[in-house]
Amino acid sequence: MPIKAGFVLMLSIMVLGLTTGCAFNPWQGGYRPAPTQMSQAHEMRTHTAVRQIPWPRLEQFLNTEADLLTQSDVAVEDWTPQQQAEARDRMMRALKLAEKPGELEVIGTSTFQTDRKIDPKDGQLAEFARKIGADYVVYSTRYLGKQDTIRMVPTWTHTSGRVYRESRRNRSSRRRHRVEYYDETTLSSNPVRVRADFYGFVAYFVKRLDESEQ
Q1: How do beta strands 104-114 and 49-52 pair?
Q2: R_g of the chain computed on alpha carbons
Q3: How deeply is 53 buried, as exposed, middle or buried, from its count of CB atoms within 10 A (0-12, 13-18, 19+)?
Q4: Paired residues of 101 in beta bridges
């Protein structure tokens, strides 16, 4: 199958020009389908295997592929079917998928950076991958260093005092006042700029091809 545009997309986003922040499910919020998959819907899977690869391995693959593209005199759009297949095979080997590379295809990727604690094994990644029809999802992460961010910090405020209130007049028409005391504690959230540790996450969603698609 043609992978020209899809392969270039995988290389370009993996420089980790990542989306910032997190949706309710950050993997879904940072998801981008491969160009060849824009208008395609895949059958939901009953199970998706979640795998991890070290960032240095993925980074080495990306750098190597970027060098090949830079040094090549042939535009990606003019690759032969054999060159396309070889590029896809290299990607699947980098992802450590044991099946024959020609039987698999990347249908999309998810990238984001965050200072939140993210556990790729908490079920959110697997559930989203299953819904979009991926048989495998392979993720990697790396430390991006400290960055400024805004956090909402809870603040307790305590106030106390007394107020004078007018009560009904008595028969002599004199105004009467009473004293009321108050003691209140309120909770509010205030934005505070802090330095926080940020991490980058990336995931490849891979589909097993039917015989008709190979």
Answers
A1: unpaired
A2: 28
A3: middle
A4: none
| DSSP letter string, 144-194 | EEEEEEEEEEEEEEEEEEEEEEEE---TT---EEEEEEEEEEEEEEEEEEE
Per domain, the residue ranges of the chain are: 4-150+193-213
Helices (H) and strands (E) counted in the chain, each on its own, are 5, 6
Task: Name the residue among 214, 204, 160 with its Cα closest to residue 33.
Answer: 204
Short-list 98, 76, 78, CA closest to 9: 76
Whether the CB-CB separation of 133 and 197 falls below 8 Å is answered with no
**Angle at which helices 55-71 and 81-94 cross, to 10°:** 160
Task: Write out the two tokens for 197.
Answer: 């540790």
Around Cβ 147, how many Cβ atoms within 10 Å? 13
**In terms of residues, how long is the chain?**
214
The single-letter DSSP state of residue 32 is E
Distances from the Cα of 164 to the Cα of 159, 160, 167, 177, 178, angstroms: 17, 14, 10, 6, 6
> Hey, which bits of 76-135 come out as E strands?
104-114
pLDDT, tens digit (0-9, with 9 covering 90-100), for 23-63: 489 999 999 998 777 667 788 999 999 999 999 999 999 99
Q: What's the half-sphere exposure (Cβ side, CA atoms, 13 Å) at 12?
A: 10
Query: Of 40-49, 128-137, 153-162, which one has max mean pLDDT?
Result: 128-137
Mean pLDDT of all residues in 71-91: 87
